[in-house]
Amino acid sequence: MVFRTRRLAGASVAVAAATALVAGCATGSGGSTSGASGNTLTLWTHNAGNSAELDVVKKIIKDFNGSQSKYKVKLQAFPQSDYNNSVVAAASARKLPCLLDVDGPNVANWAWGGYLSPIDVSGSEVPLSDQLASTVGRYKGKLYAFGFYDVALTFFARKSVLNTYDIRIPTTDKPWTKAEFDSALAKLKKSGKFAYPLEMGTGGSGEWWPYAFSPQLQSFGGDLIDRDGYKTASGTLDGKKSVEWATWFRSLVTKGYMAKKSGADPNKDFLAGKSAIQWDGSWNAAKNAEKLGDDLAIIPPVDFGDGPKIGGASWQWAMSSTCSNKAGAQAWLKFSRQTKYFVDYAKATGTIPGTEAAAKQVDGYQPGGKFNELVQFARKYAVVRPVTPAYPYISTEFQKAAQDIIAGADPKNALGQAAKAIDNDLKSNNYYAG
Amino acid sequence: MTTMIAALERLRPVRRTRTTHARRRESLTALGMATPAVVLLIVFVVVPLALTFALSFTDARLISPTPPHFVGLDNFTRLIQDPVFFKSLRNTAYFAAVVVPLQAGLALVLALLVNAKVRGVNFFRTVYFLPVVTSMVVVSLLWTFLYRQDGLINHMLSALTFGHVEGRDWLGDPATAMPAIILMSVWQGVGFHMIIWLAGLQTIPAELYEAADLDGAPRRHRFRHVTWPGLRATRTFVLITITIQALGLFTQINVMTEGGPLDSSTTVVYQAMRTGYEQQQTAYAAAISLVFFVLVLAVSLVQRFLTREKD
Amino acid sequence: MTSFLKNLGGHTGRVILALVFALPLVFMLVSSFKPDDQIFGDLGSLHAFLPVGALSLDNYTGVFERVPAARFLLNSVLISSITVVLGVIVNSLAAFALSRMRWPGRKLVLTAVIATLIVPFETFALPLVWWVNQLPLLRVNGFHLEWTTGWMDTYQVQILPFVANAFSVFFFHQYFQSIPKELDEAAIVDGAGWFTIYRRIVMPLSGPAVATVAILTFLPAWNSYLWPLMVVQSEDLRPVMVGISYFFQLNVGWGQIMAYSSMITVPILALFVAFQRSFVNSIASTGVKG
């Protein structure tokens, strides 16, 4: 009997060991979890679902690995919707890769949290000073990240439709005013041709909400937080101007100008003529131009009083603080900063090149090109989302407030609640000092 | 839980005929056999759960340069002032209160339908069970598509009523979001409990039915006096598994509504996840989890009390 | 004739319910062969459920361009089947000890095991991420084994946390109770040990319970989503459900989502259809009845 007990215990150990072995074999060759093993560096990107952009990353890695024999960079791509969760989980286990990309507004949070390390890219082909300001991720005066492109928000419409209803086609120099915009929507609605003349992607979720709508809030004169020290949102997010924005935003739904929740594919609905004006990102510009030709109007954001505004900062590259081979990571970052890669990115993703030099080489984005206006929007109107470690929290609260307002919540209450929650969060984090 | 505890009570004392030595060997072997499962449960459930509970008394953050500090009951005082938490509690209770009887009842109807001795019942059993085999993430995505304003359900409604019924955006309306999720959840889960009921039905001795037939009892009576009493143990099992599953409502909410609109579909587990991950407030989320754990435990005990075996 | 009429009500009910349960899945499968435009176009008519129009495998080829689907499927098969095999062994052993043997503390252990049933996994997932990274890992380095720490990015982190399962223990426990204890006593008189009784007597009699536990372990393992996202970084180690989120970048192609969903669902449905009868019978004959 004793023998049998021992045999049983032996069997259990054997099973456990076998599992460990199977698992060990599977990862033995990888061993990539410390960010780098020797001179092989791991790189994470959010692009698993976007093969066009992923191909550019692959190309830079291939070129880099071929350009020298010391370092090797190894790619791991994640689906975007859960990329941040993966990074946070890895960081909590101190298993971040050496190189990773980060959405612009999250740079401050990740830098503050100790995920990222300041980088030095001096001496690379493209100097930092050439870049669009919104493509450079700084926190507390230190450089943490840089991006190859930015995106611009814009209205798309058909010139023919606007002309039919006698609506002025605005220009960068003379954007629509709030009154003009409202009357345009009223005319379009009255025509009866459009169930909802305005399409703003209200069926979307996540970062789209603060990205798309906080610039409108800012154009009204409000903001997400008092940017003077980033110590409180009360009085700003629920201030008079912000409530004006929220009231207007809600009225779009009550007046029937905009759907409470847009369809499965807003851009397709616009192209099919279901909506007259679409608030969208520059990434659809090329597609729209292809379908509509010269009839496409690329329209600057509306000036709601405080000037036209769009959100700045898209995905950027950074280095983790736990990287065991920082020299290698810096080498990759510097290598990647070549004009040709800025060009490749912009071409592959239909986004705005991060430098003038690159813009000159991308069809449509060179001065006078049909998309050059978008470059101007990014230069003139871009407001970066608040550069504070509290941003991810602010983002979730704003998102909820905006969605509640559309669903019928009292604008002042909804914003007041969000402001209070943000203030609580700031206080409980000692205002993100440290 | 009753069934499980009833199971405990059935552990019959083994006759004391063997020697102390044999019993010691038996104990050792038993320990050896139970050890792998117990160790795995301790490592992968008990320890992380204990960690969660410990975190609820700190100010731990998901991302933070400073280590967590002990803050006593701060998170719990904040919790009782949090309006969203009470909405989450209410919605969770609402969901469970509707889903438990609805799913259990529908499952029983299905089980009775496929327990009949007619051709093709195997086909129907399979079809009713199909959604159970389909992942909840896939099901939620699929139904999000069906529930849209321009989705399949509204088109069907309009076609079936010759345009008299105008559909709505089911998930976008605070009044219908939760009912829509309830309907889908029952659709997905009912097949499993149908099988459980079926199992119970098949253990009722056929002689009882024959006796009832001899007495000339109508079908209704047959159900009330033979079937229903014969399903007592199964009832408890169905009740408890659906309750636990319903109280843990999360995936559907996360994929379909994110708690909205106007907090009409936020639930306790969803709120804990949103607070803990998206909003990075680990400690507060841990406090929500702890309260949730206590509540589920309380519900289970109440159910056990109500369904206790009276004999 | 009368019996047919009597059954007519039941038949109608069965058929209508069958439509309710099957149609959404039929819609998914049928749509996976249609271009996006047509999926939306067909919504207004019965065409939504019929394989008509411009059918093609384009969505499927699109899926393979976007997601390393074959690798994901292989991983899921591997992870799910190892979880099932280990789960059946570990949980049945524990249930055997709890239901057929006499030892101090078994009641306490059974209660504690059952209590773990009520905690949803989501509530302690994140501390678990941190925790699995403190665990020791034996791995192969060249030709020798070495100990390191941290289970991130492995197969085992996707398997071991889900092997021991309170529900499975309970299920086996109930089933074992229905096997006469006299068998054990007779075997002991013949000089058999407990492990032999487990392996030679109880397990061979427990086929239905094994089948049920296998299926109920397989489904969540196949469908796991949140956990692999948090603990697995290499694309080579990811399971199928993670692939779903690959489709939510930029513009969502519903046709491709339907294709991918069908691809990871249909094999499971086929498996179930094949084993349907034994599965139902197995639950029916196990301890769930009380």
So, CATH architecture of the largest domain in chain C?
A: Orthogonal Bundle
* Helical fraction of chain C: 55-70%
Low-confidence stretches of chain A: 1-33
**Overall mean pLDDT score of chain C?**
84
Envelope shape of chain A: globular
Number of E strands of chain C: 2
Distance between the termini of chain C: 39 Å
* Class of secondary structure makeup of chain A: alpha/beta
Radius of gyration of chain C: 24 Å
Biggest interchain interface, per-side counts: B-C, 99 and 97 residues
**What is the radius of gyration of chain A?**
25 Å
Shape of chain C: flat
How many structural domains of chain C?
2
In CATH, the architecture of the largest domain in chain A is 3-Layer(aba) Sandwich
Strand proportion of chain A, as a percent range, falls in 5-15%
Main sheet overview of chain A: 8 strands, mixed
Oligomer: heterotrimer
How far apart the termini of chain A lie comes to 63 Å
Helix/strand order of chain C, N-terminal first = HHHHHHEEHHHHHHHH
Q: Which bin fits the share of residues in helices of chain A?
A: 40-55%
Beta strand % of chain C:
under 5%
Write the layout of secondary structure elements.
The complex is a heterotrimer of chains A (434), B (311) and C (290).
Chain A: H1 2-28, E1 36-37, E2 40-45, H2 51-67, E3 72-77, H3 83-92, E4 99-103, H4 107-112, E5 116-117, E6 136-139, E7 142-146, E8 149-150, E9 153-158, H5 159-164, H6 178-191, E10 198-199, H7 208-219, H8 240-254, H9 266-271, E11 277-281, H10 285-292, E12 296-299, E13 310-312, E14 315-320, H11 326-336, H12 339-349, E15 352-353, H13 356-359, H14 372-381, E16 382-384, H15 391-407, H16 411-428
Parallel strand pairs in A: 2-3, 2-4, 10-11, 13-16
Antiparallel strand pairs in A: 1-2, 4-14, 5-14, 6-7, 7-14, 8-15, 9-11, 9-12
Helix pairs in contact in A: 2-12, 7-15, 8-15, 15-16
Chain B: H1 2-9, H2 20-55, H3 74-79, H4 83-114, H5 121-133, H6 136-147, H7 152-160, H8 177-202, H9 206-214, H10 219-230, H11 232-247, H12 251-256, H13 268-278, H14 282-306
Helix pairs in contact in B: 2-14, 4-5, 4-8, 4-11, 4-13, 5-8, 8-11, 13-14
Chain C: H1 2-31, H2 36-41, H3 58-66, H4 69-100, H5 106-115, H6 125-132, E1 136-141, E2 144-149, H7 156-159, H8 166-177, H9 182-189, H10 194-202, H11 207-223, H12 226-231, H13 240-243, H14 254-285
Antiparallel strand pairs in C: 1-2
Helix pairs in contact in C: 3-14, 4-8, 4-11, 5-8, 8-11, 11-14
Domain ABC transmembrane type-1 (chain C): 73-275
Family (chain C): Belongs to the binding-protein-dependent transport system permease family.
Subcellular location (chain C): Cell membrane
